[in-house]
C-alpha cells in the first residue's frame, strides 16, 4: 500500500510540474528567472515570425525552430509587445541593409 501511495504522489507531483510548464508557455515565455524579485528577469521566448511583423497581430515562431530570444530586463516583458516588434524590425532592417551592401560590392557596383 505504501508503494502505491508513493507512486500516486509522484504522479501528482509530475502532473503539477507539467501543468505549470503549460501555463508559462501560454504567454510565449519558455524560461523565466527572477534576478531581482519583481523587477529584473532573465527570460527566453521564441522570436517573432518575420512575415507577421507588418501586421497588427505578430506571431511567435515555433520554439522547436530554435530561434529563441535571450532577454534580460523587466519581468513583465511581452514577447509580442511593441518593444519586441520595434526591436525585431530594427534588426531586420540592419541585416537587410548589410546584405544589400555586400551584394553591391560583390557585383562591383
Summarize the structure.
The chain has one domain (29-107).
Offer a few descriptive terms:
single chain, 109 residues, alpha+beta, three-stranded antiparallel β-sheet, 46% helix
What does this structure look like?
The structure is a single chain. The chain is α+β, with helices and mostly antiparallel strands. The chain has one domain (29-107). Helices cover 46% and strands 17% of the residues. It contains 2 helices and 3 strands, in the order αβββα. The chain has helices spanning 2-25, 82-107; strands at residues 31-36, 40-46, 68-73. The chain has a 3-stranded antiparallel β-sheet, with no helix packed on it. Strand 1 and strand 2 (40-46) form a beta hairpin. The longest helix has 26 residues, at 82-107. The chain is elongated, with a radius of gyration of 21 Å. Residues 16-24 have low confidence and may be disordered.
Amino acid at each position: 500500500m505504501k508503494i502505491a501511495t508513493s507512486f500516486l504522489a509522484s504522479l501528482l507531483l509530475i502532473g503539477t510540474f507539467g501543468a505549470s510548464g503549460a501555463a508559462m508557455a501560454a504567454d510565449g515565455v519558455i524560461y523565466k528567472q527572477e534576478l531581482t524579485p519583481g523587477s529584473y528577469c532573465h527570460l527566453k521566448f521564441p522570436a517573432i515570425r518575420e512575415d507577421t511583423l507588418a501586421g497588427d497581430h505578430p506571431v511567435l515562431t515555433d520554439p522547436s525552430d530554435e530561434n529563441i530570444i535571450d532577454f534580460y530586463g523587466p519581468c513583465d516583458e511581452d514577447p509580442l509587445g511593441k518593444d519586441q516588434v520595434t526591436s525585431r524590425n530594427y534588426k531586420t532592417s540592419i541585416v537587410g541593409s548589410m546584405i544589400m551592401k555586400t551584394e553591391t560590392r560583390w557585383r562591383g557596383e
